[in-house]
Amino acid sequence: MGCVESKKIIENVTNSDIKTVYHIEDAFFEKEVKCELRVTEAANLAEKIKLDRQINKNNKYKTKYDARILAKYDVLALIGKGTFSMVARVENKQTKQPYAIKIIESEEGREAFEVELAILRRVKCPYIVQLIEVFESVDKIYMVMELATGGDLFDKVQSRGPFSEKEAVNVLKMVLEGVKYLHNLGITHRNLKPDNLLYYHPGSDSKLMITDFGLAHSRRSADDILMQTICGTPEYVAPEMVARQPYTNAVDLWAVGVITYILLRGDFPFFDEDRIRLYKKILRGKYSLSDEVWVEVSENGRDFVRQALQVDPTLRLTAVEALRHQWILATHQSPKRKQVCRSESSGGGGESWSRRSSAHSSRSLRSSHSSRSGPSSSTRRPPSARVLPHHLESLEGALSMHGTPGIPPTPLLHHPCSTRHPPHSSWER
Q: Is 156 annotated as a binding residue?
């Protein structure tokens, strides 16, 4: 089939035979370099297309990255893209170890990630995804990070339903070790949730790592313990933040309480499509531990949830107290390998890329495969999930008119949302 010409082979093609039609320096995986091949009359269309594809393949990444990156890493695939950043999977050319590279391109993006990068450079803990190295150019920042391939905790709960107490404690042990380490360094995460907890690999023995420090706060001095910025994901924010009062790192332990509830129940302790009603529920600390699912949970397990979800932050568990809780000590089995968290001063550095896609926003937490997935008042995420000041202002008006039991008597303070963090990574799910 075909004519004689179609079977001829292109020989002795030189660089002068190849002409660049157009070249886009800063495009990232959206448009490739387009080339046109000029050869002798012996050429045929099939060979022309074949060579053109090979040229495009070889040039696909080289025009998008700093030469220092390409000298050390092979760029394999785009695995995430946001408003100010993109994430690619790469492989070290010498060790063949896979990593993730987070690229921050715009000036606005640089400002947004200043705090995150400063924190990533400080920490080294097995339960926090590590920052490997950083490259900076005139228009970009490249953050090379440990690659987590096992998915996030949200995916795990959604796919399999509620965890057993033993499984939940194994998860919480790792999370609490990471939180304790951060708090010892004066760092408050402020956006802990299953979406920001990644499994290192898909295996059942994988460690779990905290990611996404876009909203984290680093204490400037020993006395600088209060924060005021309204931020986070609505279903996980603590009552003191909803009340717009100065708050401490106890907000992270409230989030741990919510995560614990989700692990054991497969659903949220506080949920409502209407944000005002949701925040009222959080302020009241009103949730249920009495349905048929909780009957299967031990009293120690239920007590842990109660102490983590204390509306009064001064009565709430700290990370150290949580690790010493009877439920954690009685149920948890230590990891196979003893891991030690180290600060920068002991030879470490680093943390993670990761932010979860807003595609989670409409997914169900409950699994139809779980025998423990009892009735739920909230089976889906809201389509938009960020803490917005005007919602809390409306809440303040509603409370002043009708009053709400359990609200702290101090005046509600107004602290506008920080604009330093991009909506794609931390403000939204």
A: no
